[in-house]
Amino acid sequence: MQKTVVVIGAGISGLTSAYLLSKKGFNIRILEKKSEVGGSIESLTENGFLFDRGPNSALETTPVISQLVEELNLKGELLYANKAANKRYILRNNELHALPMSPPALVKTKLFSAKAKFRLLAEPFIGKSHDGYYQSLAEFVRRRLGQEFLDYAINPFVAGVYAGRPEDLSVKSAFPKLYALEEKYGGLIIGTIRSIRERKKRAEKSKQSAKMLSFKSGMIALPKAIANYFGDKLILSAEVVSVDKTADGYIVSYRHKEIDEAIVCDAVLSTVPSYVAGDLFSKFDTGFKTHCDSIYYPPVLVYFLAYNKKDIKQPLDGFGFLIPEKEKKSFLGALWSSVIFPFRADDNFATFTLFIGGSRNPDFVKEDRNKLLDRVRNEFEELMKINGKPVYSSHRFWEKAIPQYNIGYIEHERFFDEFEKQNPGLFISGNFRGGISVGDCIKNAELVAEKILNNL
């Protein structure tokens, strides 16, 4: 008899797992509270400009991505990042410095002092930590690479990925592959070299070598394509009210267009944020809500700006720039959106996506919004040597943006693993488990689909 799986949440995690399970013959029903699919993926086209208000790209780190593109007929929509996007800038002393991507570039760069460069040479001789599970990324990097590398490489990188701070994030949970290099191989440089062979065997690519991709109509193209595949088996504006155990499985009750409805199923896959999942599953274990509610999601403001190219003196030859905390700016960094991918603006214009707040400055929410945006825009225009006003601007406020895999996160991971063992047929997924990037979510969605397949 065909098994039924209810997927709660139509973000990329839920949609990918649902699609892979559907291909295996499961009867899938997807419930989404919002009126649109995509979760944190949002793409807005306005006045001729395309603005990705959440994730702006994905890294092709898993074969599942190319499988989805092929099977959902998205090849004509697929875009790979411009080669210029390989160049990344870091701000230091109010100047943009290209991040060195090779040993010769590292020798020449002014981003790091001579002392910091020599400190890197000591990395292979640094011993392992004995407190890895509860070690912050800052402690890990300072010990292995030195303070200056932490301040001017890792600190801005973490702001760009997590909108977080390396002092707060767990190296084990937030950067498991980095942690594994030390645990398995004894060091980062030696480990990087040796791990390349293992990835080739698994047909995986590292995030450093994987191609960056998006779509002509923005990142929303992928979740929309999966949604179209499911048709009326995906119900929008459907708020799940409760999940209850039955003799043979589960019953998921939800409200749709002011009407209460329910679905009887064999398994439930939740892919909603932890702060939503906490209320849905607390009846199965009183500790569930406690763990979910203690996962921190800082606020982030995404600010989109478009300018005439003739007004910009900074060469547009890179991915964008990130700002170390020591530089004391009002924003975290900027993507040069129209440099990375085409179809973001007319050739006469350049578009940029700026990020404000995160764990570094969550109190920005208390400021006057217009004054904050003016200050950020002025700082950005000074750094980019822009002498004209923007021709278009827009912004998107995320009250709870990206889950922070903070120190001690291993306790949440262990709890969710045990929760699934104690409640067969309930599966907890989403970007607070297994990684926050689109690529991580898709890779993890495949693992979750396999778990459900084996369980049922």
Give an overview of the whole structure.
The mean pLDDT is 95. Helix 5 packs antiparallel against helix 6 and helix 11 packs antiparallel against helix 12. The protein has a seven-stranded mixed beta sheet with strand order 8-7-16-17-18-15-19. The longest helix has 18 residues. It has 16 helices and 20 strands. It is an alpha/beta fold and 456 residues long. The termini are close together. The protein folds into three domains: 179 residues, 3-Layer(bba) Sandwich (FAD/NAD(P)-binding domain), CATH 3.50.50; 88 residues, protoporphyrinogen ix oxidase, domain 3 (Orthogonal Bundle); 101 residues, Polyamine Oxidase, Chain A, domain 2 (Alpha-Beta Complex), CATH 3.90.660.20. A hairpin with a 2-residue loop joins strand 3 and strand 4.
State the fourth-level CATH superfamily of the largest domain.
FAD/NAD(P)-binding domain
> Which stretches are low in confidence, meaning pLDDT under 50 for 5 or more residues running?
none
CATH topology group of the largest domain: FAD/NAD(P)-binding domain
Count of separate structural domains: 3
| CATH architecture classification name of the largest domain | 3-Layer(bba) Sandwich
Put simply, the count of helices is 16
- DSSP summary, beta strand count: 20
Structural shape? globular
Please tell me the overall pLDDT. Answer: 95
CATH level 1 class label of the largest domain:
Alpha Beta
Fraction of helical residues: 25-40%
Tell me the β content. Answer: 15-25%
Q: Class by helix and strand content?
A: alpha/beta
| Strand line-up of the largest beta sheet | 8-7-16-17-18-15-19
Main sheet properties: 7 strands, mixed
Distance between the termini: 11 Å
- Which value, in Å, is the CA radius of gyration? 23 Å
